[in-house]
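Page 42, continued from yesterday. The earlier attempt failed because a stray header line got pasted into the input along with the sequence. Redoing it now with the clean sequence only.
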Amino acid sequence: MKNGLYIGIDPGPNTGGIAFIRTFIGFPDDVCATGIGKFTERDLFEYLHEMKNNSSMGCEKFCIIEKVWPFPGQGISSSFNFGGNYKSLRMALIALSIPFDECSSMKWQKYYGMKKKIIGKDEKDKNILESTTDWKRRLRQKAEQLFPKIKMTNNLADALLLADYCKHLKY
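This time it went through. Structure tokens are written below.
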């Protein structure tokens, strides 16, 4: 184990979040997270900059940012905003010299053994999956289990799980 700053970013423009886990040998982890729905690009940059500067000199710094892309049925404006937020966050990480990897939601969720539950079959014998609401609730419960002192929201859950995944990847 080593001293480190591990960052998880869910780049959703309205529902995203940023989480930080600071590890110090011999001390409990310091964990914080915030939703980023109201942040401007400058706010995002300054927040990442402040967190980086508040970490120990010489400690490892690494980030996992969820890789996103438009999906069928998503409007043009929504896709544009979603992609813009993602690119702005990547650029902030690059400008601050914070190394990062992109990770699909399926990959980090698989790490936790979390996948959508099959709740039945339709008339064509195709799987019916649990609702997005139920799915998000289960992810939030997993984050609450790992971080019981954090007042959890759906916005923070994914970012915290990404930061935890990042920490475990780097150990």
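Notes: Residues 70 and 84 are 11 Å apart (CA to CA).
Reminder to self: strip header lines before submitting.
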